[in-house]
Amino acid sequence: MGLKEQWTKIKENWLMIVLVLLILGAFLVVSKAVDSSFVGKTSSDYGGVFMEKALSGYDGVSYPGDSFAPGVTERKLVKSANLNSEIKQGEFLTAETKLKAIVTSSGAYLLDENVQKYGEEDEVYHAGYYNLKVDTKKYAAVVSQLKEIGTIISFSENTQDVTGSYTNLKVELQAEQERLARYEQMFSEATDVSDKITLNDRIFDEQRTIKYLQERLQNIDTEVEYSSIYVSLQEKPSPYANVEVISFSALVMAFVGSLNGLFELLVVILPYGVAIVIILVVYKVARRKKK
């Protein structure tokens, strides 16, 4: 077929070519409109749910100075543990009773407990958080018994050597006690009233400093003697705990939203549909005239 014949065919079928181009253009516009309706959507727009729980502990004591003391044979060690266990549904109260029995039998102290209840009616489940103090000599045995309650989800231990800090505090305390003794001696030898007043104030300040250092040493001794154990008992929730029956109003809103989307799509397509129908009619009329 020559070039002239091809050109003749194109002129005879120009309406069909225009029709194809219009259909392609309508398809591109509709695709763009649909894509734009999802721009900016996040997981929260579709009812995403996220829950996170964490358990952390703090021993309540800060240790000044350098904790490294290589020349000291008797080390000062502060121990702590974090245990997170999962309990079968409906067995939380039994597990909590076991935990408290371990606390009582070991002579430990339950410093804090916090039990939360989640869900409603038959889908209720519990989570409990407990802060224990136990004699360091019984620490390993108590941890071993606590691990037998439920299924262990996570467990961590921490041992902090505070020997250097403890030694530094003792040295500082001794220096302050010696300073206090000198002030007391100077006070007993002073004859001037103003000197006695000044020395009395300094003695008072030294006594407060010494008391503070003594309390710091006592706190460290307590932390060394009693280890901290942080326990989390979480009852395994029912797989239907977070299932909710959709309300009638939500169904109506979803239906209205779908109708709005359909109307928007029809508004976009309608002009192109009318144009296509007109072109088809013109094409058929032109074909009939040729015949």
| Coarse structural class | alpha+beta
Number of helices: 7
The level of helicity is 40-55%
Summarize the biggest pleated sheet.
5 strands, mixed
Mean pLDDT across every amino acid position: 77
Oligomer: single chain
- Spans where pLDDT lies below 50 across 5 or more residues: 33-61
Strand order in space, largest sheet: 2-3-5-1-4
Rg result: 41 Å
Element order, helices and strands? HHEHEEHEHHEH
Q: Which CATH top level class of one domain fits?
A: Alpha Beta
The CATH architecture assignment of one domain turns out to be: 2-Layer Sandwich
Briefly, what is this?
The chain is α+β, with helices and mostly antiparallel strands. Helix content is 55%, strand content 18%.
Secondary-structure map:
Elements: H1 3-12, H2 14-36, E1 77-87, H3 92-106, E2 109-118, E3 125-135, H4 139-147, E4 151-161, H5 163-189, H6 193-225, E5 226-235, H7 248-290
Helix pairs in contact: 2-7, 5-6
Kindly describe this structure.
The protein has 291 residues and is of the alpha+beta class. It has a domain at 77-177 and 224-235: Alpha-Beta Plaits (2-Layer Sandwich), CATH 3.30.70. The chain is 55% helix and 18% strand. The chain has helices at 3-12, 14-36, 92-106, 139-147, 163-189, 193-225, 248-290, and strands spanning 77-87, 109-118, 125-135, 151-161, 226-235. The chain has a 5-stranded mixed β-sheet with strand order 2-3-5-1-4. Helix 2 (14-36) packs antiparallel against helix 7 and helix 5 packs antiparallel against helix 6.
